[in-house]
Design a protein that fits this description.
Distance between the termini: 32 Å
Largest sheet: none
Shape: rod-shaped
Number of strands: 0
Protein name: Mor transcription activator domain-containing protein
Number of helices: 5
Strand content: under 5%
Oligomer: single chain
Structural class: mainly alpha
Helix content: 40-55%
Organism: Paenibacillus antibioticophila
């Protein structure tokens, strides 16, 4: 998390109002509802897992066994089953 100096980003009137309640310390201001990103969206991990799971499902549909997929993708049998038997949303 990157910190910013309040006097450089807030209007002076708002800064004075905040200083009535707290001053000289760090304060966290959360994002508004709906702005927060889901896990992996910044790094791209979410998209990589989605593509991997689609590839696993496609290979399963093409006839590869759960054992083969578990070995290929270094996942447990239960993880492969969850991926291939979960209905797509």
């Amino acid at each position: 998390m990157k910190y910013k100096n309040a006097d450089t980003v807030l209007p002076e009137v708002l800064l004075r109002e905040i200083q009535k309640y707290i001053q000289g310390t760090t304060i966290y201001i959360p994002n508004t509802d709906g702005v927060r990103k889901k896990w992996g969206e910044n790094s791209g991990s979410r998209e990589l897992l989605i593509r991997r799971n689609r590839e696993i499902s496609a290979k399963f549909s093409a006839g590869q066994s759960i054992d083969q997929l578990a070995d290929t993708f270094c996942l447990s049998h239960d993880s492969i089953k969850r991926i291939v038997y979960t209905k797509k949303r």
